[in-house]
Amino acid sequence: MMTDQEIFDKVLFAMRAQRGPSRNIMSCAYRGHGGRACAIGCLIPNKLYDPAIECVSIGGMETVLKEEKLHPEYYANADCGNSPKRAHVLEDVLLKCGFQRSQFGLLRNLQTLHDQYIQEDNLKAYEVEMYKLADAYKLVYLIPDRADEIPKMWDM
After folding, report:
1. Which residue in 30, 33, 37, 149 has the fewest CB atoms around it within 10 Å?
2. Model's pTM, two decimal places?
């Protein structure tokens, strides 16, 4: 099992090395073009990756799994985007990776930052948001090695 700090560091370093988002034709992707992986995709070993998790976010998974318990009749035959089937596959993949349900909030936040703030070859906004996330979770944020990636907090 990885600690929150280990998860945060692995995602931060992977996104810095990749220098851009992981996308497929339509949107962000756990596994994208050119061998890229998103903030969560980089945490999932190839042997545990399942294409069925594409098109369902961690936040979507959490919502569907909660709603499915409240309204099972509505979700009985749903098989699209954030369907219970896909939500359960994603949950199973994350649990098989060794993540605890208590870490899903951190994973959701890391995924959101990837999807909203990473731009091709420009990680400054992402770095600022990762700094804030580290502070919120009481984690250590490591400054980038490249001077041009160091965010100027007062300029954002």
Report:
1. 33
2. 0.86
